[in-house]
Amino acid sequence: MLFEDSWILNTLMENTGDSIYIKDRECRLRRVSRKMALSLGVSDPSEIYGKTDIELFGKEFGEITRQDDLQVMGTGKPIIGKIEKYIDKHGEVNWTSATKMPLRNDKGEIIGLLGITREINELKDAEIEFQWLATHDLLTSLDNRFLLLDHIQQAIFRAKRINGLFALLFIDLNEFKKVNDLKGHDKGDQTLIKIGQLLRKNVHSSDTIARIGGDEFVILLDGISKVEDSIIVAKRITELLSNKIDKEDFGITASIGISTFPKDGEDAETLLKTADQAMYEAKRGNLPYRLV
Questions:
Q1: I want to staple 282 with a disulfide (CB 3.0 to 4.6 A). Which of 165, 247, 273, 290 is the partner?
Q2: 131 in a domain, yes or no?
Q3: pTM, whole model, 2 decimals?
Q4: Digit-coded pLDDT (tens) for 43-89
Q5: Is 79 left (phi over 0), alpha (psi -120 to 50) or beta?
Q6: The domain spanning residue 102 has which CATH number?
Q7: What total of structural domains would you count in the chain?
């Protein structure tokens, strides 16, 4: 019989670090490893025999795994290393990699499946951390240039769909070099962090704030109703920097260049470059901000 005891099977079920299980054609568990039983809070694996994933994990997650089981047993093709996310009743997230293979009898008929599930929480946490590091500025925790460009592309897609507009504010700090030169880079870093926090608190949550250079920030004002809205925000930012950054920071001010979609460009790089040019025009003209 398929589910009879064997020395090799028992050894695997008792000692493996993965959750191993055997299911019948009705997707009921017929054997489970001790690891799987313990992960479900059960000391005796036999207590789980005959149960389905819906009974053990709930309807939402259980129905997903059931469909995978039926696919494997219906087609005879295995599922290898499928990443699954399960949230238990306490809100804890468990990431796993699941492999399922059909089991056949001596006649070649599929009579069940063998499943192996490996927890990959540490690997997934490392992946999430790597993704964050790849898309954020390490000093200020703001978006970096890569993520900013992605958000601009999304804003372009939305704006084209509804015939809307949005603006980019390219911010360059004036006199910031003096902070590093006279007070040191630690003081300069503290000032940049303070400015990042200030910007984050004074725009909408739907807007994007990015640090893309040493003392260069960009704000994506998504979904503004008219171009004049971007000028209002630029004016408010220059006033905030003047009032909130203390005198020890040498009265840091900002030069801001503004570009708007679709007038000043219809792709992310063009809009960013245009806003950058407008910022330099503002700096040369000793203006707080300049609209293209």
A1: 290
A2: no
A3: 0.70
A4: 888 999 999 999 999 999 999 999 999 999 999 999 999 999 999 88
A5: beta
A6: 3.30.450.20
A7: 2
